[in-house]
TrEMBL record:
CDD domains: ABCF_EF-3. Residues 547-606 form a coiled coil. InterPro entries: AAA+_ATPase, ABC_tran_C, ABC_tran_Xtn, ABC_transporter-like_ATP-bd, ABC_transporter-like_CS, ABCF_ATPase, P-loop_NTPase, Val-tRNA_synth_C_sf. It holds the Pfam family ABC_tran_Xtn. Residues 5-223, 287-516 form the ABC transporter domain. The keyword Coiled coil applies. It comes from the Bacteria. SUPFAM superfamilies: P-loop containing nucleoside triphosphate hydrolases. This is ATPase components of ABC transporters with duplicated ATPase domains. GO terms for molecular function: ATP binding; ATP hydrolysis activity; DNA binding. Keywords: ATP-binding, Coiled coil, Nucleotide-binding. PANTHER family: ABC TRANSPORTER ATP-BINDING SUBUNIT, ABC TRANSPORTER DOMAIN-CONTAINING PROTEIN. The keyword GTP-binding does not apply.
């Protein structure tokens, strides 16, 4: 493979620290490299050194003659005075760019909901970010540097970007270097990983899962002071190996070595014990949404007359004690409205919401509102005014110990809250919420400003949290890691996803295909017309006897699901009142519960298949 660019003995110092010392590395044709490391260790700085935007204090960076380098920076600024079309394709005639399959793919994948001839000044921050990414990807580059490209992309957008980058170049040409905390994306796209830490860049073979294995092997031989870090990575590896089969087949590492490392690791979560604790803290009633619809007033864009927009329609969701659920949906689908119904911030237009008497709900919001009153206080003073201890699994920990578990150093305890980094504020925000001991925790995009190590630490803490957990996130890895089931909001309805995120993406692709194939749909690549439908994407409808048989089967499945729901509720009650010292009995009840839940999953899968065949 031909060499594209290289760095030799790079040395860079900032006034307070050495960022890089004697770093040597290279990028060849065909490289797909993910860059990981703690926030502030120099990941973005490394990209700036390699693409020539920053000059090192020592050493040198060399580029192959004529190399074309494209970069997406975290702080990219698009020209607000231009239209989207002007910024993305410049002065190129429409018939020229519309004839380029790559350009059409980028525009449809990133700018489906962005007005093609609209002014950039009128766009949201997330839309501007996607315009900047699209403008980069329509160009021809030998090397592409991407700094946090998944920011402002939903699950579907991230999957599209991964697919685009995998097919952008032939296998042994072009090169990609990407900084991201999205671990699914790293595994899907990258064939090598660079870890930036302690002034060096350490290379690893493979994507995120392979990196975790090699890091565990490295940490196993490290000093005793690294014990906590070792254990956390071992647990992460255990989940990767026991997770979805598709994930474990991709990494290029020794499966036998991985199995040996996790042989004595307990299950990631003790579901029976967590369910027992959740029921004892919550009772059997949490929050029930019964035939709930939500409408908001709006102005008809054509007539200008007052109208209403239905966001959620006939939603039924009975949240169980200890339930760990992820919510998926495109931006604007109604995820925040759904969570508002759970918390009471949104009132239903029709239907009713029933909350258990002992429910205490807390939300980890995106805005960091919980820290406003503590802005001028030191971290140590903030935690001193909270609870003196907190139960994590079977261990009692002080707030200081929890802070240490979440990556705070002793020196940082004396730092005013307003001077913390974004990731540190995020971790402190979570700690303050957990110290209130809610029994229902809502996480709304919790991965903002967190590096992969801190995400693993928070996931580890949530594994032992005995309550009901609801998560809205575009981070596919997080959703699969901390939740046991997923729902999607599609066309205003809440839909169970027995096969998880992959099933959601299939439904969205089917929806897009149905919209494209609809009578009157334009075959010309018009970006403004590329907005995605949110219907279920059904197969061709049935007719006659076949339709009647399908309707009968659907009704039968509904009856069976209702009976199973009653049996599961009864088992939850038995778990709550059962002798907690009778571990054999608890295990038997847990096994019965899992069998019923497996039957429900099978029936729901069949229900989805039949219902799709009935849709027109």
């Amino acid at each position: 493979m031909a060499h594209l660019l290289g760095a030799e003995r790079l040395h860079l110092e900032f006034p307070t620290r050495v960022v890089f010392d004697e770093v040597t590395l290279g990028i060849d044709e065909g490289d797909r490299i993910g860059v990981v490391g703690r926030n502030g260790d120099g990941k973005s700085t490394l990209l700036k050194l390699l693409d020539g935007r920053l000059t090192a204090d020592g050493g040198r960076v060399t580029h192959r003659r004529g190399i074309r380098i494209g970069t997406l920076d975290q702080s990219d600024v698009v020209d607000p005075g231009k239209t989207v079309a002007e910024f993305v394709v410049g002065g190129i005639e429409e018939h020229v760019w519309a004839g380029d399959a790559k350009v059409r793919d980028v525009i449809a994948g990133l700018l489906g909901d962005v007005p093609w001839h609209g002014q950039i000044a009128s766009l949201s921050g997330g839309q501007r970010r996607r315009v900047g990414l699209a403008a980069l990807l329509v160009g021809d580059w030998d090397v592409v540097f991407l700094d946090e490209p998944t920011n402002h992309l939903d699950v579907e957008g991230i999957a599209w970007l991964a697919g685009h980058l995998k097919r952008r170049w032939p296998a042994d040409s072009g090169a990609l270097v990407v900084v991201t905390h999205d671990r699914w994306f790293l595994d899907e796209v990258c064939t090598a990983t660079w870890e930036v830490h302690d002034g060096i860049v350490e290379p690893f073979e493979g994507g995120y899962a392979a990196y975790v294995l090699q890091r565990v092997e490295r940490d196993r031989s490290a000093a005793a002071s690294e014990a906590k870090r070792q254990n956390l990575m071992r647990k992460e590896l255990a989940w990767l190996r026991r997770g979805p089969p598709a994930r474990t087949s991709k990494p290029k590492f020794r499966i036998d070595a991985a199995n040996e490392l996790i042989a004595n690791e307990p299950p990631i979560r003790n579901k029976v014990e967590l369910d027992r604790l959740a029921v004892s803290r919550l009772g059997k009633d949490v929050v029930d949404l019964i035939d709930v619809s939500v409408q908001f007033p709006m102005t008809d864009p054509v007539t200008g007359e007052p109208a209403t927009r239905t966001v959620l329609h006939d939603v039924e969701w009975r949240i169980a004690p200890g339930e760990r659920t992820g919510i998926l949906g495109v931006n604007g689908a109604g995820k925040s409205t759904l969570l508002g119904l759970v918390t009471g911030a949104v009132e239903p237009t029709s239907g009713r919401v029933k909350r258990g008497k002992t429910v205490r709900i807390a939300t980890l919001s995106q805005e960091l509102n919980e820290l406003t009153e503590w802005a001028d206080s030191r971290v140590s003073a903030v935690v001193a005014e909270q609870r003196s201890s907190y139960q994590v699994g079977d261990k009692e920990m002080t707030p200081g110990q929890l802070l240490e578990r979440l990556g705070f150093t002793t020196a940082q305890l004396s730092t005013p809250v307003k001077n913390l980094s974004g990731g540190q504020k995020r971790r402190l925000q979570l700690l303050l919420i957990l110290l209130q001991e809610p029994n229902v925790l809502i996480l709304d995009e919790p991965t903002n400003d967190l590096d992969t190590d801190m995400l693993a630490a928070i996931e580890d803490l949530l594994d032992s949290w005995p309550g009901t957990l609801l998560v809205v996130s575009h981070d596919r890895y997080l959703i699969e890691r901390v939740t046991d089931r997923q729902f999607a909001i599609l066309d205003g309805h809440l839909r169970d996803l027995p096969r998880g995120v992959e099933q959601y993406l299939e439904l969205r692709r089917a929806s897009d295909a149905a919209a494209t194939a609809a009578p009157g749909a334009s075959t010309t690549p018009q970006p403004a017309a590329a907005a995605k439908s949110s219907t279920g994407g059904a197969a061709a409808s049935l007719a006659g006897a076949d339709r009647r048989n399908a309707e009968k089967e659907l009704a039968s499945i509904d009856r069976k699901l209702e009976k199973l729901s009653v049996q599961i509720a009864a088992l939850h009650e038995k778990l709550a009142v059962h002798d907690q010292g009778d571990y054999v009995g608890l295990t038997a009840l847990g096994d019965s519960l899992r069998e019923l839940e497996a039957s429900v999953a099978d029936l729901e899968t069949r229900w989805l298949e039949v219902s799709e065949s009935l849709e027109s």
